[in-house]
Amino acid sequence: MEHLQVVSLLLTVLGGAPNFRTQDFPYEIDIYPFPLNIEPLSAHSLAKYVYVEASRNNINLGHPENQSPERQAFLQRLYKFLPVQKANQIGSLYGNIIDLMNNVQIENKEGWIEQLENIRTSGEVDHFEFFKEVFLGKSEGLAVGSGASNV
Question: Taking the complete model, does pTM exceed 0.85, yes or no?
């Protein structure tokens, strides 16, 4: 909810109005990272969330930080469950917004950019790690026997 507050406040500073109306299903997929469907928790659904929250480096098979056998096994498993057409990554969407912020004149622009960077980092680190742990069946919140071992 904190992210929603920051983005809504930024919209008002830029002269827009926050929008809290809900959309009917199916959502307009061109404005979301991937087609949003209500679906059961599965390796396929989790893989999408891992992917969209990851930074480009986190999911790049060739990146130097991903060369350990454990990391390669994780990435191979992740790509096995991803749809053929890859989704937008949320961090890159925030990166585009941050780039566009350089073209506007608003009070405390640096503060707004810092808040957007914090949101991006939160997703690419905290959210990514959470979804990765759930995807790998290592989340403490999903005890063995709860169905998590089938993911």
Answer: no
